[in-house]
Design goal:
Blueprint lengths: L22 H25 L2
C-alpha cells in the first residue's frame, strides 16, 4: 500500500439480488468474473511503470 504496489478494495452493505434457485448459479458465475478480473489485474500490473 505505502509503496504503491498493492490495491485494497472493500464492499460494504452488499445484499445479493439473486434469490431462490438462482443462488445456486451465483457462485460459479462469481468465480468466472473474479478469474477474469484477476487476469485483467495481472495484465495491468505488467503495464504499470
Amino acid at each position: 500500500m505505502l509503496d504503491g504496489s498493492v490495491l485494497l478494495a472493500a464492499i460494504h452493505d452488499f445484499e445479493p439480488r439473486l434469490r431462490g434457485p438462482s443462488t445456486r448459479s451465483q457462485a460459479p458465475f462469481h468465480k468466472q468474473v473474479m478469474t477474469a478480473f484477476g487476469r485483467h489485474l495481472a495484465r495491468s500490473a505488467g503495464a504499470a511503470p
